[in-house]
């Protein structure tokens, strides 16, 4: 790949600052991020794991109860939550989700739209549900499936 010298110098400074050992390593990460971003945007049937984080005012009328109710209504998507008290009014919450990208996005949009919820961020990573094993030796899954990150 050829790029002009000024861009190459800027890129080298950026990757050095981020700790990459070579341009190739940095380019692989950039390409993975772009491919994954495209996959998340356009593959409606994709399955994913995700983190949804947000800050909210727990004193706002029934907001905490509405957020908990939404999580219960979507118990098939919500794997776990972590709740942090920031001050006397605000809480930071992270929900770990898994399901179809469409369902996860829809749930995230519902939480974002709640009056009093601020600073939301969603990070989706598409996965392939399956039974592949990297290590030898089969075992029973007892009703669960493996989620293999797509590369």
Account of the protein in words:
With 151 residues, the protein is of the alpha+beta class. The chain folds into two domains: 5-42, Arc Repressor Mutant, CATH 1.10.1220; 47-130, ACT-like. Chain A, domain 2 (Alpha-Beta Plaits), CATH 3.30.70. It is built from four helices and five strands, in the order ααβαββαββ. Strands 2-3-1-4-5 form a five-stranded antiparallel beta sheet. A hairpin with a 4-residue loop joins strand 2 and strand 3.
Task: Name some characteristics of this structure.
151 residues; alpha+beta; Alpha-Beta Plaits; 38% helix; Arc Repressor Mutant; 2 domains; 4 helices
Number of DSSP helical runs? 4
Shape: globular
**Computed structural class:** alpha+beta
Compute the gyration radius: what is it? 20 Å
Low-pLDDT runs: none
Q: Output the CATH topology of the largest domain.
A: Alpha-Beta Plaits
pLDDT averaged residue by residue: 87
Q: What's the number of structural domains?
A: 2
Strand content: 25-35%
CATH class of the largest domain: Alpha Beta
How would you sum up the major sheet?
A: 5 strands, antiparallel
**Termini Cα gap:** 22 Å
Secondary-structure element pattern, one letter each: HHEHEEHEE
CATH architecture of the largest domain: 2-Layer Sandwich
Strand order of the largest sheet: 2-3-1-4-5
Q: What portion of residues is helical?
A: 25-40%
